[in-house]
Model the fold of this input.
Amino acid sequence: MKRRHFLQISPLVSLLPLSAFAHLKNKDIKINQLPDANTKDFFYKPSNAWAADFIPLYAEGKFQLFYLLDWRDAANHGEGTPWYRISTNDFVNFTEHGEMLPRGTKDEQDLYVFTGSAIYAKDKYHIFYTGHNYHLAEQGKPAQGIMHAVSDDMNKWEKLPSETFFAPSDKYEKDDWRDAFVFRNEEADEYNMLLAARFKNGIPRRRGLTALCASKDLHHWEVREPFYAPDLYFTHECPDLFKMGDWWYLLFSEFTDKVRTRYRMSRSIQGPWITPKNDDFDGHAFYAAKTASDGKHRFIFGWNPTRSNSKDNGNWDWGGNLVVHQIVQEADGTLAVKVPETVSAAFHNSTVPSFTKGNGNFKITDAGINFNSPQGFSAAVAGKLPDQCKIEMVAEFEKGTKQLGIMFRCSDDLDKSYYIRLEPNNNKLVFDMWPRERSEVDHVTELDRNVDLHAGVPVKLQLFIDGNKGVAYVNDKVAMNFRAYDLPAGNWGIFASEGVATFRDIKISTL
Done:
């Protein structure tokens, strides 16, 4: 049983025995994510396992990323989910610190050590986490409770099970009380805790809320009136809160509508909370995202989920690979995201591609590649796509152009391909494929983003490919993660459909 109601778990795979991971505990192992002869994942995942729900903390000069580790192999590894930790200062190279919070037993609250937060306060590191155990629910006890652990050095943690507390039975559902986010509220001179919770009464799929607790000492908590309860979603998972400039931002992840990490904004920590026009950070393939700042920049840490049976039409799994976006605050206070500079710089071996073949009406000039296809489809092909690479370019289109963008893993006859496609008429960025898995849709379901597109205005496109996963960025504002399994190799190129477009400053870079 997993707490993500919308996610399906892939069939179990054969992995290393638990003893193979014993050497990781409380030891630091340097992991260079850049490829060796066996090519590692660029977007981080633990060896022989998967990562979910990253809990970031900036401490000791690095981003400390606690995360939920899932072997997806209960037969060999046992039931439950522990917390592990990695650290990094560039989101490219990571130090593995091993297990931080071990799983409890079937008789203990924290068989599954689920999401929470980590802070440094009162001369100690504190973790507030979710103890989940559905075996207890079967006995009529709460499946979820908030638990506390402390440490002097972030390596050795002491659990404090006597401080576990549960949802008030008069107002909230007992089995939805999780994802504690703890912060110091200077205005109120107290510590606050935000929680994912659900009302006992109301429309079933709209009972989700962000609950609020308060404490003076981090050991005793008082449940207050809800922090944010809009009657919109089943639950508000993985809450996060931060202030940037004059604005406060409340984050949460929902799986009721489109499966998104969303945000609200307010001039005051007390609200009211405004929903911006575009209130999400990415698409379906970026979930449970939480933020941290190094004092200069703020980043958001989420995971790109795998898909069952490693197929494009497989169900979305729980857990996958780490993806980090940098948060950008716009002049009006709304938030955008872009690729972190260190991630982009890791792809440093750049070449200018040569487009030698294609389809339809296109012309190669010193200024770029021009497409003139007002009634049809044109494409220019640049050869084989590397397994790990960055593609970047600037595109511009004339009024009335229907589609343009990047195609990759194309067959030689261009009949099969993936597409990162801009749709000016719809102001959309979408992930598409030919042939499609479903005939009644015009792109891969839930892999789309809103983006402002205007004729004659240049559009910056960046595409990062790492094996079967990738992320596209537009104008240093919009991001879209995706998975691509069914076409493992092929060519890449650019295209325009039913319109006139120009592409320039085209580069492809490898690690």
About this structure: The mean pLDDT is 92. The CA atoms of residues 416 and 435 lie 6 Å apart. Residues 341-346 form the longest helix (6 residues).
